[in-house]
Structure formats: C-alpha cells, structure tokens
Amino acid sequence: MEKLITIQGVYKSYEQHHVVSDLNLDVYKGECFTLLGPSGCGKTTMIRLLAGHEVPDKGRITIGDITVVDTETGEYIPPERRALGVVFQDYAVWPHMTVYENIAYPLKMEKRPKEEIDKLVMDMIDVVGMHGLEKRLPSELSGGQQQRVALARALVADPAVMLLDEPLSNLDANLREEMRFEIKDLQRKFGITVMYVTHDQEVALAISDRIAIMDAKGQIRQMGTPYEIFEKPADLFVFKFMGVANFINVREENGEYYIGNGQQLVPGDRPVGQAAKWVLGFRPSDVTVSRTGEGLKGKITKATYLGSTMDYTIAIDGEHFRTAIETHEALVNNLMFKAGEDCLINFKALHWFDAEQLKEVEDL
Amino acid sequence: MSNGIKKESSFGIAHVILFISIAVLCIFVAWPVLLILFNAFFVNGSFNSSDFYAVLTEPETFQALLNSLFIASMTTIGSTIVGTFFAWLVTRTDLPYKKFMKGLFLVPFMLPSFIGALAWKMLLSPNSGYINTFLMDLFGLQEPVFNIYTYMGISAVEVMYLFPFVFIQVCGALERMDPTLEESARISGAGLFTITRKITIPLVLPSIMSGALLIMLYSMAHFGTVAVLGIENGIYNIPTLIYEKIHQSGGSFESIRTGTVLSTVLVVTAAAIIWAQQKILSKGHYQIIGGKSFRPMELKLRGLRYPLLFACLAYIGFTIVLPTVVIFMVGGVSTYGLPLTWENMSLDNYKYILFDYEVTKDAIINSVSLGLVAALITMFAGVMISYVIVKMKVKGKGILEFLGMLPFSVPGSVIALGVILAWSGQFGINLYNTVWIILVAYIARYMAFSLKANSAALEQVHDSLMEASRSCGASMWQSLKDIVIPLVRPGMISAFFLIFLPALRELTVSIMLYAPTTRTIGVAIYTLNEDGETVMSTALAGIALILIVVGQTLINHFTKKAGE
C-alpha cells in the first residue's frame, strides 16, 4: 500500500508540558485512520500539526510527496497551501455566510470559474442531503445540519486527505450514530484518505480501517485494525480504554495460578512473560453463567433488572466482577438469579496483565 | 521558540502588526503620560521629589485637590443612592410602566453635564436664576432661596447626570441574579426585609461598588460642571485649576509644572480606582450572578405604586425636561434676561449660529469632522490592537496588554496636558494651536472605548473560524478580510458611535487645546458663556442636544440591527 501521510519523530509541548512526544506513524492512501485516546492526550494537537495550525518543536511531516514541515531543514508550508479538508469539533461554519457561500469558499479561493463552482457546490449540497437549504444561514440550521455543511466544505475542493477532529462529539446520540455511517459512506464514495480523531471507541471501531491508541502522555500504545485492537489488546491501557472491563486478582502458588484467595485454578492459557503479580482482565460479555455443568463456583451478590438485560455482580473467592445476560435468554434457560444464589462461571476469553500496569492505568 | 520555523513563518505579518499596535499606543497614550510624569518629578533634568511635594502643598493646589476629592465623594454618594434606588424600583417592584421608566432613567446620559450645569446656572444662580427670582417675587423675599454656586450645587448637578453609571450596573446585576437564591431564603422563613439585607444587597454590592467607583473616577477628573458653576465662588478642582493656570499664563513653565503635578495625582488616583474596581468585580461571590435572565421576585408596592411613579416622573421632569426646556427657551430670546414668554421667542438665534456666526459655524464643523476622523482612526486602530491582544500568539504581547490598559486610566485633562507636552515643538513636531492636536488627544482619550467594544466582538469569533478558512485555502489577510472583519463589524460600528457621540460634545480635552479657529462645540458653548454671550451659548447648546439625540437614535437603530 502507498503511504500518503508520514509523521516522523514529532514532538510538541506547551509550557514544558509534553503533548506529543516522538510520534511516528504512517497513513496509507485511501484508508480511514483513527487516532483514539482520552481527552487531553494530544490527538487534537496532532490534527493541528497536520493542518499547519501548529508547528512541531521537532520532527517531520510529509503529505503525498510534499514535506509540509521539517524542523531540520526549516521547511514549512502554511495551512492554506496544504490542500487538506478539515472538519472542526465545533463545526467552524461561518455564521455570516449562507450554506452555499460556506461550501463555495474553498473553490472561490482556488479561483475556479463561476459555473464550475455553482455545479460543484450544488452537487455537494445534494451529497450531504442539504438540498433546498443552500440559502440558509448557519443560525437557522440544527447541529447535525451544520456538521453536514462543515463536511461538504471540507470535501468540495476534492482534497486528497480529510482531517476530522471529534466531528461528532457535539451531536446527540442518535445523530452521532447516523452521521458516523454517513462519514464512512462519503469516505468510500470519494476514495479519500481520512485521519479521524476521537475519544469515542465505538465511533472508532465503526468507521476505521486502522486505529492508533494514544495515551495521556501522547504516546501510541497500539496500532492495528479494529479487530486486533479489540480482541488482542497490546496492554492493559488499550484493553481498559476499549470498553467496560473486569479485573480479578490471581495468586501464584508452586507454579500454579489460583483465583483470589481460594483454591480454584484459573482455566485456559498461562501467562507469557514475567510479572511479580498477575491480574486477569475480561469483558462482561466474555462471561457465561449457568446453574449446572462445568465451571468455577461463584455466588451472585447483586442482581439488577435493566429491562433488556440482567446485570449481575458475582463474587468468586473474594474477588468481584460484573456480567450481563439478556433477560430473554435468562428466562428461557432458567438463569434468572437472585442475590445469594450460587452459580457456575465460564470465560470465553481471558487476558493476563501485569498487576503493576493496573495501578498505573487506574490513575487515568 | 527554539526552531527557526515559527519565527520565519509569522515574522512577516504578526510582528509587523504587533509593532504597529505597540507604536500606536506608545505614541498616542504612553508617551504623553510619561512626559507628564517626567515633568512632574524632574526639574532641570534631575529627579526632585521635594519640589513635587512643594507644588502639591501650595495652598491653591492643595485646595483644588481637596475640592476634587470632596466633590467627587459627594457626587459618588449621591449618585449611588439615587442610582441604586431607581434600579431597585424598575427591576424588583411592580412599579407601573417599568420598561419605559428604565429607558427614561438612561436619558440623563445624553445630556452633557456642562450643558446641564449651564441650565441650572440660569435657573438657580443667586441673583438672576429664574427659579430664585420667581420664588422671591412670589413670597416677597429679599434673599435668594437657592445658591447653585456651592459645593452642594455642583455635586447635585453632577449627580443628576452621572447616576446612570450606577443605575445600569445595578439593574444588570439585579436582573441577572438567580432568583432561587432569594426563594430558598424565603422558604427558610426569612422575611422580605431580611432577604434584601442578607441576600440581595450582598450579592449586588460588587455592582454597586463598581458603578460608584466609575463615578468617582469620572467626577475627580470632571471639568465642565465645576468650570461653569464653581468659578463664581472660586471653587476649583484639579482639571479646572490646570486649565485656569495654563490659560491665564499662556502656558508658562510654572503653570505646566503645577499641571503635571496635579495630573500625576489624577493618574495615580485613577489607577488605584480601576485596580479597586477590577478587584471587586473579580471577587468570587459575584459569580452567583450568571449571564441568564431570570424573572425576579417583585415587591408589591400597593398604595405606593402611583405615588412612586409620579416621583420618578417628577425627578426626570426636574432634572432633564426642565433644564432642556430652559436651554431651548433662553436660546430663543434675543437678550438674556428677557422674560421667557411666547412673544419673546424666535428662531433667529438658531439661524444666526447655524448660518452666519463664524465662531459657532466653525465649532460645529470642527466638532463633526474631528469626531468623524477620530472615530474612524480609533476604530481601526482599536480593531488591530484588540486583534493582537485577543487572538494572536506572539512574544511581546504582554507589553501590549499593559499598554492597552493605560487608556482606561488616563483622564481627559491629563491627556490634554500630555499632548501639549508632546506635540508643541519640543520633539520636532508642533501641532499646538492646530486642529491636529485636538485630534491626537481625542484618539488617546477614546482608545479605551474602541478597545473595549472591539475586544468584546473579537472574543465572540472563535479561533477555529479563522483556522477553517486558512485550511480552505485563504491566506491570513484573506481570512481577516472574509471572516474576521465581517464578524467584528458590529463591534466596530458600535466603537465608531461610542467615540463619535462623546467627541461631538467633548469639553475637557478641547478646552485645553483650542485656538481661536479650532473651537469645538463644547468649547464654543463654554467660551461664549464666559464672554457673556449667554443667549448664543445656550442656542448652540440646544443645537448640540439635537445632534446628540439624533446620533443616539442612530446608535440604537444600528446596535439593535446588529443584535438581531
């Protein structure tokens, strides 16, 4: 695959605080690449560095075959000559211009002939489903409609790369779901390379070809496909960041691993590598409970009816974790537990982590 | 920045703008003020603080200082009581026609206080004041009842035209105060009196104080009222003494020195007042007053509703309508002293001063053109400086932020004196006795208004709007032109009018700087009155009032449009 964006050894700090440190990554042509991380982790700074609104303290960025910034040679190309489409978190739709004028602006800056501008703008207005609203001012539009204008404006000049900075975070949940598919559709339709920045792992999983997980120190913890990130987390940070997680302590005695303070052996694989103490990590959906058959012995300590699901807190040898089971399934299989009842537990997937890491990550 | 990129990329534009902004503020504001401080403390080139003290303790100077303080204190106390009371009436009671009354209480802003003083002089001067002679005739008295040429008289007139400063601040605070704070006190069983004392007043106190300090600052350095009403009994405050000294001696070294010493006192006081005001406004409990408008709890006035409404109307009638009517009527008679009867009225004076009398014709042309040019220059300079302060990330911005605060704390008479020191030829350029020196002083005086209006407008323009246009292919200049300027235009327009209207009626600065052909409207009204041309003076005052009202109506029209 052809590399389109290359980021090499980029550093950026504000007042001694490192926001991005030694960042290296490549984005391939035509892919949707997502930088995913907690807020304040420097992902917005990365977008701003790419767009040229910030200059790195050190490092080199190339887009296509052009070096847009290189601190060693002193090269710097200002934002207006980078030919990127940028969508901002707060839309940044100009309030004094109509929908049409907003979308036409990049074409006007390219001094395209009037008829061409007119055609391209009207086509784009159709693509984002804003037909008939072209004479409206942004103040007369909903948040979602403003977001569409921002998208159209970023796409209209047919840039090779589009940068999106948390474009959905100001929308309500339903609209967010709808818009993320639309963005994905637009990306496929235009064959455009997208660099997407968000703290929302669901959006990231839904639209990305590849994801890079960034921690609060601005370092990349793992890079890979959504499947790799979710199923094979490189470390505890990634595992915890990608969704609700349970952790239970493990005790090592004579080369065997026991759960909590009891005598039940941990099922499945053994850990690889060295650690003074291990913990097990798993998601609520990776647990099955039953009344009979094989499994570890546990006790239901809390049962909460949540409509479509039953939420259980389970104790096992002094450790506690949560799981959920569909109410319908629980009814059919006689799995409607009450607090105090015994149960049997099986794990579909277990991840071994160094307990030291847990402390480190819990500060986040 | 350690690397060369930032410097190179931003040097071209950012540093040029920063440099020009600093230069503008230095040349127009900082330099004149520095010259005043220098002249106050340095005698023959060497530092001499004992001489400063000697000048300050001269009986005449010291008396002026005391007078300024005394009049300002009386005015502040009076305005605070009047302003707070009316503010409470129109926001927290069921007074009839509240909205209309609120608008009415802002009208005094439009009447320049020296024109008001002129009217009160005609109404209440001990010997010939219309009210005094009327009462003397009526009751067969030998002595006049009122004497306006006193500390009380001066302060009373200042209160009439300055109280809206407190009124506006307190109205705003009372309207924005979260009523649940009072309601929860009421639920806890507190009576209305307790609530007012323990909840409401402590919450609006910062606003009251801030309005009071504003009046203190204004009154300390106020020229017009004291000049019109004080001279008769030899009451001078700081600005009138500076004027008198320099005017009488034709700008002698001695008089300038006294002026600089007094100005230094004014600048220091002003700085202290502004510091105190910011301190009060930034106090924590002020945040309880949010930006939202709530529907506040109202006190039922019951039987007092109409008597209080009548009292408010009487107050407005007495302080605004009566003086205005007197101005227009005296402007209509052929000689001052003729009874104000219908037969004696004519438009001859107005025709004469508008079309035939060189002094007043010049004055109107001067004021209008000075106002326009000063407003335009200051508006554009203000946009640029505010842009650097609010939006740009450049080294050296701190200097500009400091310089930007300066115009707020330099009173008019100080600016006038500083401008004389800076632009009368000692430094190669002599603008003295030309209209240009007044223009330079106006720019310095009104820079604060422009900075305030433009920064407020620029704060509203989010950085990402400009970044979006850069990413759409627009250069920095193109983005400024297409995005920033259109969005701050309402702020610029309001800055323009905020400068143009006060400039039209300006007296404090122009009186120190005028030459025979460069009188402004304010100067012409004042000097004609001094020369005994009372009728011409009042007729011109009438014209000025008409100009002000028309201008204010235009402002309201424009700002309403911009707000939509």
List the helices and strands and how they pair.
The complex is a heterodimer of chains A (364) and B (564).
Chain A: E1 3-14, E2 17-28, E3 32-36, H1 43-51, E4 58-63, E5 66-70, E6 75-76, E7 84-87, H2 99-109, H3 114-127, H4 143-155, E8 161-165, H5 173-190, E9 193-198, H6 201-207, E10 210-214, E11 220-224, H7 226-231, H8 236-241, E12 246-253, E13 256-259, E14 278-282, E15 287-290, E16 296-305, E17 309-316, E18 319-326, H9 327-332, E19 342-347, E20 351-354, H10 355-362
Parallel strand pairs in A: 3-9, 3-10, 7-8, 8-9
Antiparallel strand pairs in A: 1-2, 1-4, 4-5, 5-6, 10-11, 12-13, 12-14, 14-20, 15-19, 16-17, 16-19, 17-18
Helix pairs in contact in A: 2-3, 2-4, 3-4
Chain B: H1 4-41, E1 42-43, E2 46-47, H2 49-57, H3 59-92, H4 98-104, H5 113-124, H6 130-139, H7 151-162, H8 164-176, H9 179-187, H10 192-220, H11 224-230, H12 238-249, H13 253-281, H14 305-330, H15 348-356, H16 358-391, H17 397-405, H18 412-423, H19 435-460, H20 463-471, H21 476-504, H22 508-513, H23 521-530, H24 534-563
Helix pairs in contact in B: 1-13, 1-16, 1-17, 1-18, 3-4, 3-7, 3-8, 3-10, 5-7, 5-11, 5-14, 7-11, 8-10, 9-10, 10-13, 12-13, 13-18, 14-24, 15-16, 15-24, 16-17, 16-19, 16-21, 16-23, 18-19, 19-21, 20-21, 21-24, 23-24
Quick take:
By secondary structure, chain A is of the alpha+beta class.
Give a verbal description of the structure.
The complex is a heterodimer of chains A (364) and B (564). Chain A is globular and about 80 Å long. Chain A is α+β, with helices and mostly antiparallel strands and 364 residues long. Chain A has helices at 43-51, 99-109, 114-127, 143-155, 173-190, 201-207, 226-231, 236-241, 327-332, 355-362, and strands spanning 3-14, 17-28, 32-36, 58-63, 66-70, 75-76, 84-87, 161-165, 193-198, 210-214, 220-224, 246-253, 256-259, 278-282, 287-290, 296-305, 309-316, 319-326, 342-347, 351-354. Chain A has 2 domains: 3-240, P-loop containing nucleotide triphosphate hydrolases (Rossmann fold); 244-362, OB fold (Dihydrolipoamide Acetyltransferase, E2P) (Beta Barrel), CATH 2.40.50. Chain A has a 6-stranded mixed sheet with strand order 7-8-9-3-10-11, with helices on both faces. With 564 residues, chain B is mostly helical. Chain B has a domain at 58-330: MetI-like fold (Orthogonal Bundle), CATH 1.10.3720. Chain B has helices at residues 4-41, 49-57, 59-92, 98-104, 113-124, 130-139, 151-162, 164-176, 179-187, 192-220, 224-230, 238-249, 253-281, 305-330, 348-356, 358-391, 397-405, 412-423, 435-460, 463-471, 476-504, 508-513, 521-530, 534-563, and strands at residues 42-43, 46-47. In chain B, strands 1-2 form a two-stranded antiparallel sheet. In chain B, β1 and β2 (46-47) form a beta hairpin. In chain B, α1 runs parallel beside α17 (397-405). Chain B is globular and about 80 Å long. Chain B starts with a helix and ends with a helix. The interface between A and B is medium-sized, with 36 and 26 residues.
